[in-house]
Design brief:
about 260 residues; alpha/beta; Cobalt-precorrin-4 Transmethylase, domain 1; Methyltransferase, Cobalt-precorrin-4 Transmethylase, Domain 2; six-stranded mixed β-sheet; five-stranded parallel β-sheet; 11 strands; about 20% strand; binds S-adenosyl-L-homocysteine; methyltransferase
């Protein structure tokens, strides 16, 4: 085991397709002696790891409960203090709903300044895979990334107000972790946005088994149930969805090869 102080790098693994890794991410993965891997990291990403790297899965694999956040932070810290070159691999970007901020704070408290390498966040990759943008001079002058997952013990997001902002300021809404709250989201947004507002729901974006559902705010819930889409998925709400490439528009549910 090394004795020199180690280092920790939080690496964004992108949405799944290993070709969407950055060169910095590949280099960090290839140099790591210890790799802590999240749930939503695509399979091919670890092909860049050294054969002798110690790889630990800390996500909810195989129906197991995910490793508590405090344990993950201890694992990172312990390995770094033992002189290891630690990579913490996170799906998408570490700083978008990835608890990257919390991990950085906890490492800093212990005297370690981690390096953070961006990854392509799922919300961007999902709509790009359908050929549409998130902003457009005619449709949307901004974009909001929100989580649909209600805060523990806290009030849920005010979907009506968010819908009003999206309407008044012409913003695209990109909703992470929204599937289980789809009914709540739909009801709130319908109070502000036209019921024909286009919606795209993209499951497992950029992975081989990607599926998507193109619908409207009015039909969103029934179409989701009809198509059986589940997590992980991104919902994109707004007129930019009309830019989805033609071949995908006609069938409500299509696989990416359509
Ligand atoms: N840090 C990640 C987000 C982590 S939160 C990022 O930047 O992408 C986990 C949520 O991200 C999932 O519930 C889902 O809403 C979304 N997500 C992650 N990967 C996805 C993928 N390949 N396709 C669709 N949604 C995905």
């Amino acid at each position: 085991m090394n004795t020199a102080p180690g280092q920790v790098t939080l690496v964004g693994a992108g949405p799944g397709d290993p070709e969407l890794l950055t060169l910095k991410a590949v280099n960090a993965i290839a140099a790591a002696s210890v790799i802590l891997v999240d749930d939503l990291v695509g399979e091919g990403v670890l092909a860049h790891a050294r054969p002798d790297a110690r790889i630990t899965y800390v996500g909810k694999r195989g129906g197991c409960k995910s490793t508590p956040q405090a344990t993950i932070e201890q694992l990172m810290l312990g390995a770094a203090q033992a002189g290891e070159n630690v990579v913490r691999l996170k799906g998408g970007d570490p700083f978008i709903f990835g608890r990257g901020g919390e991990e950085v704070e906890s490492l800093r408290r212990a005297g370690i300044e981690p390096v953070v390498i961006n990854g392509i966040t799922a919300g961007l990759a999902a709509i790009t895979s359908l050929g549409a943008p998130l902003t457009h001079r005619e449709h949307a002058q901004g974009v909001v990334f929100v989580t649909g997952h209600p805060q523990k013990d806290g009030p849920g997001l005010d979907w009506v107000r968010l819908g009003e902002s999206a309407r008044d300021l012409r913003l695209t809404l990109v909703i992470y972790m929204g599937i289980s709250s789809a009914a709540l989201i739909q009801a709130g947004l319908l109070a502000a946005l036209a019921d024909g507002t286009p919606v795209a729901v993209i499951e497992r974006a950029t992975l081989k088994n990607q599926r998507q559902c193109l619908t409207s705010l009015r039909e969103m819930l029934s179409d989701l149930q009809h198509c059986g889409l589940g997590s992980p998925a991104i919902m994109v709400v707004g007129d930019v969805v009309t830019g989805v490439r033609e071949a995908l528009r006609a069938p409500m549910l299509a696989d990416q090869s359509a």
